[in-house]
């Protein structure tokens, strides 16, 4: 794939999405993400943040708009019949981690990790297991390879979920409120793993309520409310000195509650 | 297929009489099961082993043996053991009633154990004594929660009443058997009888389904 | 009156044969009934209206009528309709398999429904093809979740199998009743018959609790 350096990694164009006839969640989103960027999406609940990530992963149908990845459109709904077209080949270069871990409860940790590589790419069991074990070691989970998800703490489960997504060598990672379900003392271990990925310049889009984490990891912050992008800029601006009134209100309230 | 259908030769008089007997058995057994199942549930949850163990044995015995064995046992053995001779209808009601009592006791036990701990704490905080807590907190909550299972068990016993035909109680099934033999019309007779049982069971099971869906909606 | 349980010893072999028939009948119908139930469970959750309608009518009808009536129908009516003689064992197997299929289909349906949508999200996010989603993620979880209820279904089937005595199949109940009639010792014989059923069914019901606590708790399914 030839791609000039400045070409966007992800290009989202006038994305519309509604649930039923009355609830519009995304009202024409336009976002461009450059390679190597770490975009944190913040905003009030119901503002469309999680829906955005779910749409990018192809988990939700859209009303209209398109998303391209590495210059290739892979999700679109342009035709009159409003059918959402998804290019699954392109989609496979994107990994996603969810709020509620979504590990497969009947499979051990290592089996969770090797299922997709073996079944999707036809990788051999031995090679996948070797890679999986190495990944687990790196995330401090080497001893848990044969445990079942129910035997792990929330933080461990979430780290396994991240490792599982990484097994497919994604070119972009989506994190959907991955620390929201965790006990406070377990949040750091998961955030450490994500920071580790950031240090290796993995492009990522993160939805989070944790403003401290947002500040630490973001190369860019997008404030999303009412289904549109309200403010978009470097973290110092959006989190520190927002230009928009709605952003300022939100940031003030979040930090007010915190302290 | 050399069988020609003839639904005309099935006389509905005996079937109607049989259905009445079946319904009487069902209602009477349900009265026993619904009323006495609750105290039995309290017994199997007792902290005192001499109370709990016999009650548990009673419940498990009825739940873990075939109903037909229980009924036949009842009809042959109770008169001999206790030297009492009850009418076959009374025997049928007792056998089915005790069976249902055991199943309902389990339903009540599950429902009682599902009464949230905070409810009882609130009762203690309000100064209710154990009897009052049982009557005013546990009983209403547990009974409401157990209604779907009680209905399912009740309809189950309606179907089990067919077993008393084997010991010559003249219920719907018994009438069907004699009619099928007299008229040589087994297909018509047994099909009609199956439809009659179905016509009673199905609406009740639909009600149970509705109650459960509503409950799930309210809980979610 | 004096009870004399030693009378049972004289009929050991007959009772053992009857028990064997009961166990054999139950095992055959467990295997056939569970397989039938699984496909009916799938059919009831299928997108095809026809499949859903047909399977629903079957399940509701078998759940809504006494097993004894089903048994009589299959023993006396099915041979007339098919125009062939069916052996007692065949009729018994057909009747109890259809009964087991109906109750286990509900078990499978409930377990399929209990697998949350987030499991499918994870499958999509990992790019798993539909076939892999079904065989490696949905099916194993559905079966694991169904196991406790399936065991209860097996106990029900084992108990209902005693009904075949009413149509002259020589199972444990039938043999017991014959001995009881011939010896005029119903208390001893019928109590022992009941005990035999109990000694098999009771441990099975305990196994249900054990499976729930050990296996399923370990997997938190």
Automatic annotation (TrEMBL), chain A:
Top-level taxonomy: Bacteria, Pseudomonadati, Pseudomonadota, Alphaproteobacteria, Hyphomicrobiales
Assigned protein family: Belongs to the ABC transporter superfamily.
Topology in the lipid bilayer: Peripheral membrane protein
Organism: Rhizobium fredii
Signal peptide extent: none
PROSITE patterns: ABC_TRANSPORTER_1, ABC_TRANSPORTER_2
Gene3D superfamilies cross-referenced by the UniProt entry: P-loop containing nucleotide triphosphate hydrolases (3.40.50.300)
Domain ABC transporter, first and last residues per copy: 10-251
Subcellular location per the Swiss-Prot or TrEMBL entry: Cell membrane
SMART domains per UniProt: AAA
Protein name: ATP-binding cassette domain-containing protein
Cited Pfam families: ABC_tran (PF00005)
Keywords: Amino-acid transport, ATP-binding, Cell membrane, Membrane, Nucleotide-binding, Transport
GO molecular function, one term: ABC-type amino acid transporter activity
GO cellular component, one term: plasma membrane
Top-level taxonomic group: Bacteria
Annotated PANTHER family: AMINO ACID IMPORT ATP-BINDING PROTEIN, GLUTAMATE_ASPARTATE IMPORT ATP-BINDING PROTEIN GLTL
Automatic annotation (TrEMBL), chain B:
SUPFAM superfamilies according to UniProt: MetI-like
Source organism, top-level taxon: Bacteria
Transmembrane segments: 20-45, 57-76, 82-103, 149-169, 189-211
UniProt key word Amino-acid biosynthesis: no
Keyword Membrane: yes
GO cellular component: ATP-binding cassette (ABC) transporter complex
Gene Ontology terms, MF aspect: transmembrane transporter activity
Domain ABC transmembrane type-1: 19-208
Membrane topology: Multi-pass membrane protein
Protein's GO biological process: amino acid transport
Main location: membrane
Keywords, ordered alphabetically: Amino-acid transport, Cell membrane, Membrane, Transmembrane, Transmembrane helix, Transport
Location in the cell: Cell inner membrane; Cell membrane
Family according to the record: Belongs to the binding-protein-dependent transport system permease family. HisMQ subfamily.
Function: Part of the binding-protein-dependent transport system for glutamine; probably responsible for the translocation of the substrate across the membrane.
Name by which UniProt lists this protein: ABC transporter permease subunit
UniProt lineage: Bacteria, Pseudomonadati, Pseudomonadota, Alphaproteobacteria, Hyphomicrobiales
TrEMBL record, chain C:
GO BP terms, alphabetized: amino acid transport
One cellular-component annotation, GO: ATP-binding cassette (ABC) transporter complex
Keyword Transmembrane helix among record annotations: yes
Keyword Transmembrane: yes
InterPro entries: AA_ABC_transptr_permease_3TM (IPR010065), ArtM/GltK/GlnP/TcyL/YhdX-like (IPR043429), MetI-like (IPR000515), MetI-like_sf (IPR035906)
Membrane-related topology note: Multi-pass membrane protein
Annotated compartments: Cell inner membrane; Cell membrane
Pfam families: BPD_transp_1
Protein family according to the UniProt entry: Belongs to the binding-protein-dependent transport system permease family. HisMQ subfamily.
Name of the protein described by the UniProt record: ABC transporter permease subunit
């Amino acid at each position: 794939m030839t791609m000039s350096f400045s070409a966007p990694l992800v290009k989202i164009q006038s994305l519309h999405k509604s649930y039923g006839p009355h609830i519009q969640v995304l009202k024409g989103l336009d976002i461009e993400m450059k390679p190597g960027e770490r975009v944190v999406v913040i905003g009030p609940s119901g503002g469309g943040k999680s829906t955005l990530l779910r749409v990018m992963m192809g988990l939700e149908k859209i009303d209209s708009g398109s998303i391209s990845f590495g210059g290739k459109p892979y999700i679109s709904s342009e035709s009159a019949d409003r059918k959402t077209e998804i290019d699954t080949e392109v989609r496979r270069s994107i990994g996603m981690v969810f709020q509620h871990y979504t590990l497969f409860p009947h499979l051990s940790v290592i089996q969770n990790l090797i299922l997709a590589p073996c079944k999707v790419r036809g990788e051999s069991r031995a090679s996948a297991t070797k890679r999986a074990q190495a990944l687990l070691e790196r995330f401090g989970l080497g001893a848990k390879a044969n445990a079942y998800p129910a035997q792990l703490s929330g933080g461990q489960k979430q780290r396994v979920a991240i490792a599982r997504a990484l097994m497919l060598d994604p070119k972009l990672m989506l994190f959907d409120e991955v620390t929201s379900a965790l006990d406070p003392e377990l949040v750091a271990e998961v955030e450490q793993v994500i920071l580790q990925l950031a240090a290796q310049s993995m492009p990522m889009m993160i939805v989070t309520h944790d403003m401290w984490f947002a500040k630490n990891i973001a190369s860019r912050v997008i404030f999303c409310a009412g289904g549109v992008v309200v403010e978009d800029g470097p973290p110092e601006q959006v989190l520190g000195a927002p230009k928009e009134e709605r952003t300022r209100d939100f940031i003030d309230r979040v930090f007010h509650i915190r302290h | 297929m050399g069988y020609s259908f003839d639904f005309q030769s099935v006389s509905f008089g005996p079937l109607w009489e049989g259905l009445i007997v079946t319904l009487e058995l069902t209602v009477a057994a349900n009265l026993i099961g619904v009323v006495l199942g609750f105290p039995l549930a309290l017994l199997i949850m007792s902290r005192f082993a001499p109370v709990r163990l016999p009650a548990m044995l009673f419940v498990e015995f009825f739940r873990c043996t075939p109903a037909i064995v229980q009924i036949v046992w009842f009809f042959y053995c109770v008169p001999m053991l206790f030297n009492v001779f009850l009418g076959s209808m009374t025997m049928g009601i007792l056998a089915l009633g005790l069976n249902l009592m055991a199943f309902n006791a389990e339903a009540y036990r599950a429902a009682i154990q599902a009464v949230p701990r905070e409810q009882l704490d609130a009762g203690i905080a309000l100064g209710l004594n154990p009897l009052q807590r049982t009557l005013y907190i546990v009983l209403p909550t547990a009974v409401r929660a157990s209604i779907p299972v009680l209905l399912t068990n009740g309809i189950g016993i309606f179907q089990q009443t067919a077993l008393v035909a084997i010991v010559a109680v003249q219920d719907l099934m018994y009438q069907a058997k004699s009619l099928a033999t007299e008229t040589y019309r087994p297909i018509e007779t047994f099909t009609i009888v199956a439809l009659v049982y179905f016509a009673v069971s199905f609406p009740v099971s639909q009600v149970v389904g509705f109650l459960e869906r509503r409950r799930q909606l309210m809980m979610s | 009156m004096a009870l004399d349980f030693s009378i049972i010893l004289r009929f050991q072999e007959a009772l053992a044969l009857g028990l064997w028939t009961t166990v054999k009948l139950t095992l055959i119908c467990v295997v056939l009934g569970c397989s039938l139930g699984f496909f009916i469970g799938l059919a009831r959750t299928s997108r095809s209206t026809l499949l859903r309608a047909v399977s629903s009518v079957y399940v509701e009808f078998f759940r809504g009528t006494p097993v004894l009536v089903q048994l009589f129908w299959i023993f006396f009516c099915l041979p007339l309709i098919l125009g062939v003689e069916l052996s007692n064992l065949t009729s018994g197997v057909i009747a109890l398999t259809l009964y087991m299929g109906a109750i286990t289909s509900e078990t499978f349906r409930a377990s399929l429904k209990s697998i949350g949508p987030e499991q499918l999200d994870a499958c999509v996010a990992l790019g798993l093809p539909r076939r892999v989603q079904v065989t490696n993620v949905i099916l194993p979880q559905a079966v694991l979740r169904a196991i406790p209820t399936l065991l209860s279904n097996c106990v029900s089937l084992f108990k209902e199998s005693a009904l075949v005595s009413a149509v002259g199949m020589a199972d444990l109940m039938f043999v017991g009743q014959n001995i009881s009639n011939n010896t005029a010792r119903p208390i001893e014989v019928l109590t022992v018959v009941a005990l035999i059923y109990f000694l098999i069914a009771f441990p099975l019901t305990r196994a249900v609790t054990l499976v729930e606590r050990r296996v399923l708790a370990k997997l938190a399914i």
